[in-house]
Amino acid sequence: MFKLALSALFSLLLVFIPAQAAKAQQADSSTVKKSATKKSTAKKVVVAKSRVVVRHRAAKAQGRTSKRTVVVRGKRKVVIQSVRVAAPSVQTMGDLAGLNLTRDPLDLKSSVALVLDQSNSEVLFEKNANVALPIASITKLMTGLVVVQARQDMTEMLKVTDDDIDREKFTRSRLKIGSELSRSDMLHIALMSSENRAASALGRNYPGGLPAFVAAMNAKARLLGMNDTHYVDSSGLSKFNVASARDLAKLVMASHNEPLLRQYSTDQKTIVETNGVPMRYGNTNRLVNNPDWDIGLQKTGFINEAGRCLVMQAKIEGRAVIMVFLDSKGTQSRSADAGRMRKWLEALKPTGMSVPGG
Fold first, then answer.
1. Would 115 disulfide with which of 125, 226, 295, 325, CB 3.0-4.6 Å?
2. Segments making up each domain of the chain, as ranges
3. How far apart are the C-alpha atoms of 345 and 124, rounded to whole Å?
4. Measured between alpha carbons, how far apart are the two ends of the chain, in Å?
5. Distance CA 145, CA 21 (A)
6. pLDDT digits (tens, 9 = 90+) for 255-275
7. Averaged pLDDT, 122-129
8. CA distances to 14, 66, 132, 209 from 241, in Å
9. Which of 179, 194, 255, 335 is catalytic?
């Protein structure tokens, strides 16, 4: 009997000891993990603090810190904080020429402005209208004019290549290398959405290539009497594409005679298909979506050297006018200037009124 009891006790010990050992091992493992987690957290805190210190020292070295006194539990404490400094504004070519100092009765945000009566070319408003400045994507209006007047096949498929990559401003494009679109679609999104690679492809696929196309653009400018104008590319990314407001008014008048340019530049949106993939494009000019405006042709433009630019043909109080705004400051300022000009024109007497500025 005693042997049986001893044997049972020994069996219980064999079961109990491994279980206890397993629990002890788990406890040790848990302790190690907690210790590792604490060390990792402490390390992260130290790294985070060191990064804050480095940023703070850099900010302090550049004079971008501020001190303020706070009360914590009845004790005064000095807190040093980093201060965000706004990036300096980029000066346009108009700013460098001092055109931004010119004042006008409408307080326009554009350094250059011109409004003509389309029927007789009467100047209704002008401000620095004879100064040649970078015109950015307003260039694409001349690109379109050369394409349509060359009577090229609008159904021909054009391919986007490495030559169409913007190495001037490094802008992005939704048209990938290898994308294929008809010449018509390329022209459509170049005018409506200011697609740079489309404008480049249009120039490359001209007889003689891009150099011949740019030469044709400059020849057309001379033919139109645009004597202050010069082009070096078909997209307007170069600051060396320049023109005066008076020259651009002549370009708008000539372009307005082409129905395709009127349609493509004023469409609100379109869908083009490239390599089987449909893509939706919209107009860069929000005024074409406004039912209060009757716009017959338009083009926007922007690069840092040019500021915000806008040219339009529109009807106001039954009168067809040409509007040109160059070197405008602020993303919506050119549209706001157009609105100010419209209200001013609506208030004009039927005999008209010329207000030169600068």
1. 125
2. 93-357
3. 8
4. 123
5. 88
6. 999 999 999 999 999 999 998
7. 97
8. 93, 45, 10, 18
9. 194
- Whole-structure pTM value: 0.75
Burial 102-134, CB ≥16 within 10 A → b, else e: bebebebbbbbbbbbebeeeebbbbbbbebbbb
Pair 288, 268: CB distance under 8 Å: yes
Output DSSP code: residue 89: P
pLDDT in tens, 302-353: 999 999 999 999 999 999 999 999 999 988 999 999 999 999 999 986 554 4
Greatest Cα-to-Cα distance within the chain, rounded to the nearest angstrom: 132
Amino acid in the structure at residue 120: N
What is the predicted pLDDT for the residue at 5? 47
109 is catalytic: no
Q: Specify the DSSP class assigned to residue 285.
A: -
CA distance 182 to 60: 56
- Single out the catalytic residue among 110, 111, 137, 234: 137
Contact (CB, 8 A) for 115 and 124: yes
Class of domain 93-357: alpha beta
Q: For the chain, what is the radius of gyration of the CA atoms?
A: 34
- Cβ-based neighbours of 205, under 8 Å, separated by 6 or more: 152, 156, 158, 183
Helical H segments across the chain, by residue range: 2-61, 93-96, 139-149, 183-192, 196-204, 209-223, 245-256, 259-266, 333-346
Encoded tokens for 228: 């202050």
- Judge contact between 213 and 191, C-beta under 8 A: no
Instruction: Please state the separation of Cα 163 from the chain's center in Å.
Output: 21
Which residue intervals of 150-194 are DSSP H helices? 183-192
182 among known catalytic residues: no
Examine the residue annotation and report whether 140 is marked as an active-site residue of this protein: yes
Name the catalytic one among 109, 127, 140, 250: 140
